[in-house]
Amino acid sequence: MTDLISPDIEQLLLDATTSRSRRIKNRLASVWMLGALLVAVVPLALVIGYVLFKGIGQLSVAWFTEDLPTITRKAGGGMGPAIVGTLLITLCAAVMAIPLGILGAIYLHEYGGKGRTARLIRFMADVMTGVPSIVMGLFVYTVWTLTFGLNGFGGSLALGCLMLPIIIRTTEEMLRLVPDELRQASYALGNRKWRTIMTVVLPASFGGITSGVMIAIARAAGETAPLVFTIGAARNLNLNIFEGPMTALSVQIFGNAQTPFEAAQSRAWGAALTLVAIVFAMTILARVVSSRVARRHAA
Predict the structure, then answer these.
(1) Of 237, 58, 87, which Cα lies nearest the Cα of 155?
(2) pLDDT tens digits, 270-295
(3) Which residues contact 278 (CB under 8 A, 6 or more apart)?
(4) Is residue 286 classed as helix, strand or coil in its secondary structure?
């Protein structure tokens, strides 16, 4: 019925049926929410615009294919090893953290409930969420790197440990949003609990789970401190994540931005823009996949 009323008539009816003080409060709340939106969006737009302005000049075919320059202060070279290293290390970390995080969240909400073990896991996940990344890097350095040497897998372990608690907590919150009526309907059809989780609960919460996973991946892709301790420094491409030093975009941003040379600082801005573009592309891809899964589940 409300779809048949024009916005102007709807506004007149609203003004006629509400008091002056309520209309003033409504407008003040609208202005406050709009201002909060601007406060959140404007700094983000300025940061992205400045990174784009400073880094767009570095992007070329050579930037994505050539090795890092041997002499930092000279212009030229590319960021190919760092781009590939970032993708490999983050992918390996995601392969380890995403299944464990989702399974852990399923246990906490669907099986553990308010039991003692579930409460302990939630507490530890909350503690791990607040652990500084440099502490996680030192831990992996002590446990893995001192024994097996500098390699990309050590960086993946550190990033995976940072991603895991985020995925656990966000996935559990998304599972809580699934109505219990859907579960009860599945049980009424004779489905077991595991099948209800796989065919009803997870598809219904897939969009929110994807958002949580992308938040974890975005954080991991931009981390620097754990990688400084674990992956070493390499100027050439290394596709073996288990052997030999590697490099990543975040490490190159950290190293080049510290130098006083203009060429190195330009490479840092280019690496920052490349990292933002990679995270943006992965987010769009995840959104496309989640929307298709949601449409299939709704159908």
Answers:
(1) 87
(2) 999 999 999 888 888 888 877 777 77
(3) 83, 86, 87, 221, 249
(4) helix
